[in-house]
Write a structure and sequence with these properties.
Blueprint (H helix, E strand, L loop, with lengths): L4 E6 L3 H12 L7 E6 L14 E5 L8 H11 L4 E5 L3 E3 L3 H6 L6 E9 L9 H4 L4 E2 L11 E2 L8 E5 H7 L12 H11 L3 E11 L12 H15 L5 H9 L3 E3 L5 E3 L5 H5 L8
Parallel strand pairs: 1-2, 1-4, 2-3, 6-10
Antiparallel strand pairs: 4-9, 5-10, 6-7, 6-9, 8-10, 11-12
């Protein structure tokens, strides 16, 4: 089977990264190389033995340059097959083999997430999988056949490097949190790439999350506006409608967004979700 590279990006999340690398090391197939792109600094990163890990420090003025960091990781990857893994993931031992069997020049391959209710002390998939729950919107997506492209997000996916370059990579004009995944899905759909799920899993390690993510309010508004200009439709509509219901924004009939006020500290604090997903 073909060699492959792993790309992950990280800011903080040192324990999650250690757990991810532990799970990678337990895989039935080891990557040729792992490209870790750090959006903060290189402090506190521990590299296990027998993994070829390369560290990169991305120097961007924005505090969360997600698109640029992912593109940097692919540029550094040393093989033709690239598997993107979110730093919050723990991978099943069989995941890489199952994904690589399906990667072709016209496909984006992904897998199903299961969600842990805690940040575990270990990266052992077998020890943790019975504690994880499925995402109710994801568990019924069919396996092995092309599915609607907007089912994509960058938690876990495999792509050939040439395919990624043909798509154009992640659009770096989306800065910070929100819409860069959906934009990438639109671009690979325009390029006639199929999104296919394999019957395998990643475990998502718990971290505090906001629903709606008012902690990323400004970048979500900026990226939603950028997306509407590019694709003539508003993305992230559930979040935007929630912002509107909170009195933070107004959306007119032409889908223009007007910011009415910034979220308060109280609104940010009380938006933390108890759900693991």
């Amino acid at each position: 089977m073909s060699e492959f590279s792993i790309v992950t990006i990280v800011k903080g999340r040192r324990k999650q990264l250690a757990n991810l690398l532990e799970s990678v090391k337990a895989s039935t197939m080891l990557p040729h190389d792992i490209q870790i792109v750090c959006m903060d600094n290189l402090d506190g990163i521990t590299i296990p033995d027998n993994l070829n890990v390369n560290l990169h420090l991305i120097n961007e003025t924005h505090e969360l340059p997600l698109a640029a960091a992912r593109n940097r990781g692919v540029a550094a990857a040393k093989t033709d097959n690239v598997i993107f893994i979110d730093v919050d993931c723990i991978v099943s031992p069989s995941l890489f083999a199952n994904m690589l069997m399906r990667v072709q020049a016209d496909t984006i391959i992904t897998a199903y997430p299961l969600y842990l209710p805690m940040l575990p002390e270990t990266g052992s998939y077998d020890d943790l999988m019975h504690q994880a729950v499925a995402h109710p919107a994801r568990e019924h997506i069919p396996v092995g056949v092309p599915v609607e492209h907007l089912q994509f997000w960058s938690l876990i996916f495999a792509v050939r490097k040439q395919t990624f370059e043909k798509i154009g990579g992640f659009d770096e004009s989306f800065i910070g949190y929100g819409a860069e995944d959906t934009d990438f899905a639109m671009m690979f759909h325009e390029a006639n790439m199929a999104l296919i799920f394999v019957h395998d899993y990643v475990l998502h390690q718990y971290h505090n999350k906001h629903d709606p993510p008012v902690n990323h309010f400004h970048s979500i508004i900026e990226n939603a506006t950028r997306y509407r200009q590019k694709w003539n439709v508003l993305p992230m509509q559930r979040w935007l409608k929630a912002f509107a219901a909170m009195g933070l924004i107004k959306i007119d009939q032409a889908d223009h967004i007007t910011v009415l006020q910034n979220p308060s500290d109280y609104q940010i604090k009380n938006s933390i979700s108890p759900n693991p997903y």
